[in-house]
């Protein structure tokens, strides 16, 4: 994120001896310490304009500073006055303090915790409600940064920030949407939160974002993790089927995603089918899920493989007779491989045979899809 860009600070470079460098560094540190003290005093005792100027200077210094400098600013007492400025009726004061706090929190766990302890979350939630998109998205970035610290998650999760972050998913800038998804993902891992932070309103914007992003990206991993959580509720499942291309997007993620996103995507599809096989089986089959699921039984994580096996069983015509399932098929292939190449190479040969079967299945499925598309007349193709 641009607001978090940083690089390690160094004293002004001049050619010197080793002893000269030590002296120069000591002088630089003394100057910096004096500046930290001066700015902290401005924040604590100055008028509003002085506080705004001090906050802007802190942000400027901290952006290019080390973790140590952030800690020194925190120890100098700047956090409480900066948090107080978040509630100022003056928008310049709010923005200046928000940017300063945001940069103080980056890569500094203690500052993150101290900012929340000082009471920053309620005014940040108020900023998320503003029509001012710039301040609103800066507040989302701050929530993201602060929610990365485990001790802060319960406070933020209980604050009412999540529904406001969901609004940014639908109407924010690209950076705002990325920050909102990441913040929601951080909050979703809060074990202390007994009330779900997400409701079905998040499904449609998450599906739309997943459509647009690369399925193997870190962003897709977070979006599919949230969709899997939402698939556990009836409202979430209904929203997925009501969203344009909702199930198809999950199927495409199973096919093209990373190990993490495929695991979450197949988990969401499995939740759908387990909740009501009669309702969701045909919907999933119609989106061509079988080839991707077959491949996942071979190439996915252990959890994804197990989920793919279970979902394939549910998608069969006669689930009660599913004992001739993928596990039985794998045993048959393994026995054949053992006879051909011996027991020591059986596992490797069996895997290769299964991969060939998956590839052939995918080719046959694609041929059927292409044949069906070629046989359609424009009148038979449903409009988007």
Overall outline: elongated
Rounded Rg: 27 Å
Distance between the termini: 35 Å
What would you call the structural class?
mainly alpha
The helix fraction, in percent, is: over 70%
Outline the low-pLDDT stretches: 5-14, 319-325, 375-384
Number of strands: 0
Number of helices: 21
Q: In what range is the share of β-strand residues?
A: under 5%
Oligomer: single chain
H-E order: HHHHHHHHHHHHHHHHHHHHH
Mean pLDDT, to the nearest integer, reads 84
Major sheet, described briefly? none
Pfam families: Arm, ARM_PUB
Organism: Hibiscus trionum (Flower of an hour)
Protein name: U-box domain-containing protein
InterPro entries: ARM-like (IPR011989), ARM-type_fold (IPR016024), ARM_PUB (IPR058678), Armadillo (IPR000225)
Describe, in plain words, how this protein is organized in 3D.
Pfam families: Arm, ARM_PUB. This protein is mostly helical and 384 residues long. Helix 1 runs antiparallel to helix 2, helix 16 packs across helix 17 and helix 20 packs across helix 21. 72% of the residues lie in helices and 0% in strands. The C terminus is likely disordered. 39% of the residues are buried. It is elongated and about 80 Å long.
């Amino acid at each position: 994120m641009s607001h978090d860009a940083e690089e390690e600070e160094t004293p002004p470079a001049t050619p010197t001896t080793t002893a000269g460098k030590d002296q120069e560094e000591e002088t630089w540190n003394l100057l910096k310490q004096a500046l930290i003290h001066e700015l902290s005093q401005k924040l604590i005792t100055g008028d509003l304009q002085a506080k705004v100027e001090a906050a802007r200077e802190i942000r400027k210094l901290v952006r290019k500073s080390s973790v140590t400098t952030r800690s020194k600013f925190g120890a100098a007492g700047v956090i409480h006055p900066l948090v107080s400025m978040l509630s100022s009726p003056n928008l310049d004061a709010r923005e200046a303090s928000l940017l300063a706090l945001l940069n103080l929190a980056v890569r500094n766990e203690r500052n993150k915790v101290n900012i929340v302890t000082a009471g920053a979350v309620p005014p940040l939630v108020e900023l998320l409600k503003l029509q001012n998109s710039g301040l609103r998205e800066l507040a989302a970035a701050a929530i993201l940064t602060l929610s990365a610290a485990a001790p802060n998650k319960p406070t933020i999760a209980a604050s009412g920030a999540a529904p406001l972050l969901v609004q940014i998913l639908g109407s924010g800038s690209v950076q705002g949407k990325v920050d909102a998804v990441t913040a929601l993902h951080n909050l979703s891992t809060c074990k202390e939160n007994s009330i779900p932070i997400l409701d079905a309103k998040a499904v449609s914007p998450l599906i739309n974002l997943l459509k647009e992003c690369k399925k193997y990206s870190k962003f897709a991993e977070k979006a599919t993790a949230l969709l899997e959580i939402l698939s556990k509720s009836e409202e979430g499942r209904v929203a997925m089927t009501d969203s344009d291309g909702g199930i198809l997007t999950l199927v495409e993620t199973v096919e093209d995603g990373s190990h993490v996103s495929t695991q979450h995507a197949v988990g969401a599809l499995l939740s759908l089918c387990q909740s009501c096989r009669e309702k969701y089986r045909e919907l999933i089959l119609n989106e061509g899920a079988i080839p991707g699921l077959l491949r996942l039984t071979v190439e996915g994580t252990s959890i994804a493989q197990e989920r793919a096996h279970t979902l394939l069983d549910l998608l069969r015509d006669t689930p009660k007779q599913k004992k001739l399932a993928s596990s039985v098929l794998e045993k048959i292939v393994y026995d054949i491989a053992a006879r051909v190449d011996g027991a020591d190479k059986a596992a490797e040969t069996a895997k290769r045979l299964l991969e060939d079967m998956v590839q052939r299945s995918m080719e046959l499925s694609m041929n059927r899809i292409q044949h069906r598309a070629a046989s359609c007349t424009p009148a038979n193709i449903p409009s988007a």
